[in-house]
Design a protein that fits this description.
By secondary structure, this protein is α/β, with parallel strands linked by helices. The chain folds into 2 domains: 122 residues, 3-Layer(aba) Sandwich (Rossmann fold); 96 residues, Winged helix-like DNA-binding domain superfamily/Winged helix DNA-binding domain (Arc Repressor Mutant, subunit A, Orthogonal Bundle). It contains 8 helices and 12 strands. The strands form 3 sheets. The protein has a 5-stranded parallel β-sheet, sandwiched between helices. It has a 4-stranded antiparallel β-sheet with strand order 6-7-8-9, with no helix packed on it. Helix 1 packs across helix 5, helix 4 packs across helix 8 and helix 5 packs across helix 6. The longest helix is centred in the middle third of the chain and has 18 residues. The radius of gyration is 18 Å and the shape is globular.
Length: 237
Protein backbone atom coordinates (compact mmCIF):
# COMPACT_ATOMS: atom_id res chain seq x y z
CA UNK A 1 0.00 0.00 0.00
CA UNK A 2 2.57 2.59 1.21
CA UNK A 3 0.42 5.70 0.67
CA UNK A 4 1.49 8.51 2.97
CA UNK A 5 -1.27 10.05 5.13
CA UNK A 6 -0.88 13.34 7.01
CA UNK A 7 -3.00 13.67 10.16
CA UNK A 8 -3.35 17.17 11.64
CA UNK A 9 -5.07 17.34 15.03
CA UNK A 10 -4.19 19.25 18.18
CA UNK A 11 -5.41 16.43 20.46
CA UNK A 12 -2.46 14.09 21.01
CA UNK A 13 -4.56 11.05 21.93
CA UNK A 14 -6.73 11.37 18.81
CA UNK A 15 -3.95 11.86 16.29
CA UNK A 16 -1.92 9.02 17.78
CA UNK A 17 -4.92 6.66 17.79
CA UNK A 18 -5.74 7.50 14.19
CA UNK A 19 -2.08 7.17 13.24
CA UNK A 20 -1.75 3.74 14.86
CA UNK A 21 -4.87 2.51 13.08
CA UNK A 22 -3.61 3.62 9.67
CA UNK A 23 -0.14 2.23 10.35
CA UNK A 24 -1.69 -1.16 11.09
CA UNK A 25 -3.56 -0.88 7.78
CA UNK A 26 -0.24 -0.47 5.97
CA UNK A 27 -0.10 3.29 5.43
CA UNK A 28 2.86 5.53 6.11
CA UNK A 29 1.68 8.12 8.65
CA UNK A 30 2.85 11.67 9.37
CA UNK A 31 1.46 13.48 12.44
CA UNK A 32 1.19 17.24 13.03
CA UNK A 33 -0.07 18.98 16.17
CA UNK A 34 -1.56 22.17 14.67
CA UNK A 35 -2.29 23.99 11.43
CA UNK A 36 1.11 25.58 10.98
CA UNK A 37 2.90 22.29 11.59
CA UNK A 38 0.46 20.60 9.24
CA UNK A 39 1.27 23.00 6.41
CA UNK A 40 5.00 22.51 6.95
CA UNK A 41 4.53 18.73 6.89
CA UNK A 42 2.42 18.98 3.74
CA UNK A 43 5.19 20.90 1.95
CA UNK A 44 7.95 18.54 3.07
CA UNK A 45 6.19 15.17 2.97
CA UNK A 46 3.79 15.53 0.00
CA UNK A 47 1.19 13.09 1.40
CA UNK A 48 -1.35 11.22 -0.72
CA UNK A 49 -4.16 12.33 1.61
CA UNK A 50 -4.63 14.81 4.47
CA UNK A 51 -6.83 14.41 7.55
CA UNK A 52 -7.64 17.77 9.17
CA UNK A 53 -9.38 18.58 12.43
CA UNK A 54 -11.58 21.64 11.92
CA UNK A 55 -11.14 23.27 15.32
CA UNK A 56 -7.50 23.55 16.42
CA UNK A 57 -5.50 25.81 18.68
CA UNK A 58 -2.63 27.90 17.40
CA UNK A 59 -4.52 30.47 15.37
CA UNK A 60 -5.10 28.41 12.21
CA UNK A 61 -8.13 26.14 11.99
CA UNK A 62 -8.63 23.22 9.64
CA UNK A 63 -10.64 25.18 7.09
CA UNK A 64 -7.81 27.70 6.72
CA UNK A 65 -5.26 24.91 6.30
CA UNK A 66 -7.56 23.29 3.75
CA UNK A 67 -7.72 26.50 1.69
CA UNK A 68 -3.93 26.86 1.81
CA UNK A 69 -3.45 23.30 0.58
CA UNK A 70 -5.99 23.84 -2.20
CA UNK A 71 -3.93 26.75 -3.48
CA UNK A 72 -1.12 24.26 -4.13
CA UNK A 73 -2.55 20.84 -4.90
CA UNK A 74 -5.57 18.60 -5.49
CA UNK A 75 -4.58 16.26 -2.65
CA UNK A 76 -7.75 14.71 -1.15
CA UNK A 77 -8.69 16.16 2.23
CA UNK A 78 -10.84 14.62 4.97
CA UNK A 79 -12.16 17.00 7.63
CA UNK A 80 -12.84 15.85 11.21
CA UNK A 81 -15.70 17.61 12.99
CA UNK A 82 -16.56 17.54 16.69
CA UNK A 83 -20.05 18.78 15.81
CA UNK A 84 -22.92 16.98 14.12
CA UNK A 85 -22.50 17.13 10.35
CA UNK A 86 -25.11 19.30 8.64
CA UNK A 87 -25.53 20.33 5.03
CA UNK A 88 -24.39 23.85 5.96
CA UNK A 89 -21.04 22.77 7.39
CA UNK A 90 -20.50 20.30 4.54
CA UNK A 91 -20.98 23.21 2.12
CA UNK A 92 -18.55 25.29 4.19
CA UNK A 93 -15.99 22.52 3.92
CA UNK A 94 -16.59 22.14 0.20
CA UNK A 95 -16.07 25.84 -0.29
CA UNK A 96 -12.72 25.48 1.45
CA UNK A 97 -11.83 22.54 -0.81
CA UNK A 98 -12.55 19.50 1.39
CA UNK A 99 -13.57 16.15 -0.06
CA UNK A 100 -14.94 14.39 2.99
CA UNK A 101 -16.34 14.90 6.49
CA UNK A 102 -16.20 12.53 9.45
CA UNK A 103 -17.67 13.25 12.85
CA UNK A 104 -15.88 12.79 16.18
CA UNK A 105 -15.59 10.61 18.15
CA UNK A 106 -14.14 8.68 15.23
CA UNK A 107 -14.82 4.96 14.96
CA UNK A 108 -11.47 3.59 13.87
CA UNK A 109 -12.74 0.92 11.50
CA UNK A 110 -15.04 3.39 9.77
CA UNK A 111 -12.18 5.89 9.60
CA UNK A 112 -9.88 3.39 7.89
CA UNK A 113 -12.64 2.30 5.51
CA UNK A 114 -13.35 5.88 4.46
CA UNK A 115 -9.67 6.63 3.98
CA UNK A 116 -9.47 3.64 1.67
CA UNK A 117 -12.62 4.69 -0.19
CA UNK A 118 -11.34 8.23 -0.68
CA UNK A 119 -8.05 6.98 -2.08
CA UNK A 120 -9.91 4.62 -4.43
CA UNK A 121 -12.05 7.54 -5.56
CA UNK A 122 -8.97 9.48 -6.61
CA UNK A 123 -7.41 6.49 -8.35
CA UNK A 124 -10.59 5.87 -10.31
CA UNK A 125 -10.93 9.50 -11.31
CA UNK A 126 -7.47 9.54 -12.87
CA UNK A 127 -8.12 6.55 -15.13
CA UNK A 128 -11.40 7.54 -16.75
CA UNK A 129 -11.91 6.86 -20.42
CA UNK A 130 -10.65 9.82 -22.43
CA UNK A 131 -13.60 12.09 -23.08
CA UNK A 132 -13.83 15.66 -24.29
CA UNK A 133 -16.94 17.80 -24.10
CA UNK A 134 -17.14 21.31 -25.55
CA UNK A 135 -20.27 23.31 -26.27
CA UNK A 136 -18.64 26.73 -26.42
CA UNK A 137 -19.45 27.53 -22.79
CA UNK A 138 -18.48 24.39 -20.89
CA UNK A 139 -15.29 22.60 -21.92
CA UNK A 140 -14.33 19.41 -20.08
CA UNK A 141 -11.38 17.13 -20.76
CA UNK A 142 -11.89 14.19 -18.40
CA UNK A 143 -8.57 12.57 -19.29
CA UNK A 144 -6.50 15.68 -18.56
CA UNK A 145 -8.79 16.75 -15.70
CA UNK A 146 -9.19 20.23 -17.19
CA UNK A 147 -12.44 22.18 -16.99
CA UNK A 148 -13.20 25.58 -18.48
CA UNK A 149 -16.38 27.60 -17.99
CA UNK A 150 -16.83 30.53 -20.34
CA UNK A 151 -13.12 30.23 -21.24
CA UNK A 152 -12.03 30.42 -17.59
CA UNK A 153 -10.31 27.45 -15.98
CA UNK A 154 -12.09 26.32 -12.83
CA UNK A 155 -11.04 24.09 -9.97
CA UNK A 156 -12.97 21.05 -8.81
CA UNK A 157 -12.08 18.98 -5.79
CA UNK A 158 -11.28 15.33 -6.58
CA UNK A 159 -14.76 14.32 -5.42
CA UNK A 160 -16.50 16.99 -7.51
CA UNK A 161 -14.48 15.91 -10.53
CA UNK A 162 -15.40 12.26 -10.03
CA UNK A 163 -19.06 13.18 -9.68
CA UNK A 164 -19.01 15.16 -12.93
CA UNK A 165 -17.15 12.35 -14.70
CA UNK A 166 -19.71 9.73 -13.69
CA UNK A 167 -22.60 11.92 -14.81
CA UNK A 168 -20.92 12.74 -18.13
CA UNK A 169 -20.05 9.11 -18.81
CA UNK A 170 -23.80 8.41 -18.46
CA UNK A 171 -24.81 11.46 -20.48
CA UNK A 172 -28.53 11.53 -21.23
CA UNK A 173 -29.29 8.76 -18.73
CA UNK A 174 -30.49 9.14 -15.17
CA UNK A 175 -28.00 7.92 -12.60
CA UNK A 176 -29.93 6.82 -9.49
CA UNK A 177 -28.83 8.43 -6.25
CA UNK A 178 -27.70 5.13 -4.73
CA UNK A 179 -25.61 4.36 -7.81
CA UNK A 180 -23.98 7.78 -7.57
CA UNK A 181 -23.11 7.16 -3.94
CA UNK A 182 -21.54 3.82 -4.75
CA UNK A 183 -19.69 4.91 -7.91
CA UNK A 184 -18.40 8.25 -6.60
CA UNK A 185 -18.00 7.76 -2.86
CA UNK A 186 -17.93 3.99 -2.47
CA UNK A 187 -20.11 1.32 -0.89
CA UNK A 188 -19.27 2.71 2.54
CA UNK A 189 -21.45 5.75 1.75
CA UNK A 190 -24.68 4.29 0.39
CA UNK A 191 -26.63 5.47 3.46
CA UNK A 192 -25.33 9.08 3.29
CA UNK A 193 -28.28 10.16 1.19
CA UNK A 194 -27.68 13.92 1.48
CA UNK A 195 -24.21 13.74 -0.09
CA UNK A 196 -25.31 13.79 -3.76
CA UNK A 197 -27.70 16.70 -3.18
CA UNK A 198 -25.07 18.82 -1.45
CA UNK A 199 -22.29 18.03 -3.93
CA UNK A 200 -24.56 18.45 -6.97
CA UNK A 201 -25.56 21.89 -5.68
CA UNK A 202 -21.90 22.85 -5.28
CA UNK A 203 -21.02 21.53 -8.73
CA UNK A 204 -23.85 23.50 -10.31
CA UNK A 205 -22.50 26.70 -8.77
CA UNK A 206 -19.24 26.08 -10.59
CA UNK A 207 -20.36 25.02 -14.06
CA UNK A 208 -23.90 26.26 -14.69
CA UNK A 209 -24.81 29.65 -16.17
CA UNK A 210 -27.55 29.85 -13.53
CA UNK A 211 -27.27 27.32 -10.69
CA UNK A 212 -30.92 27.89 -9.75
CA UNK A 213 -32.02 26.93 -13.27
CA UNK A 214 -29.52 24.27 -14.36
CA UNK A 215 -29.22 23.05 -17.93
CA UNK A 216 -26.33 20.58 -17.57
CA UNK A 217 -27.05 18.66 -14.36
CA UNK A 218 -30.75 17.94 -14.06
CA UNK A 219 -32.66 16.41 -11.17
CA UNK A 220 -35.06 13.55 -11.70
CA UNK A 221 -37.05 13.88 -8.51
CA UNK A 222 -36.92 10.84 -6.23
CA UNK A 223 -34.78 9.03 -8.79
CA UNK A 224 -31.39 10.67 -9.37
CA UNK A 225 -29.50 13.01 -11.67
CA UNK A 226 -28.48 13.19 -15.33
CA UNK A 227 -26.04 15.21 -17.40
CA UNK A 228 -27.65 16.81 -20.45
CA UNK A 229 -25.47 17.82 -23.40
CA UNK A 230 -26.17 21.23 -24.86
CA UNK A 231 -26.89 21.04 -28.58
CA UNK A 232 -26.16 21.91 -31.33
CA UNK A 233 -22.61 23.01 -30.44
CA UNK A 234 -21.70 20.24 -27.99
CA UNK A 235 -19.52 17.22 -28.69
CA UNK A 236 -18.69 14.23 -26.53
CA UNK A 237 -16.04 11.92 -27.96
Amino acid sequence: MNEKILIVDDELAIREALGRKLSREGYEVVLAEDGAAGLRAFHSERPALVVLDIIMSGGMNGLTVCRRIRELADTPIMMLSAQAITEDNVVEGLNAGADEYLIKPVRLNEFAARISALLRRIQLSTTDVEQIYDDGYLNVDLHRRQIYVDNKKIHLTPTEFKLLAVLMENSGRVVPQRDLLEQVWGREYVDDVYYPRVYISQLRRKIERDAANPTYILTEHRVGYRFEKQLPNSTLT
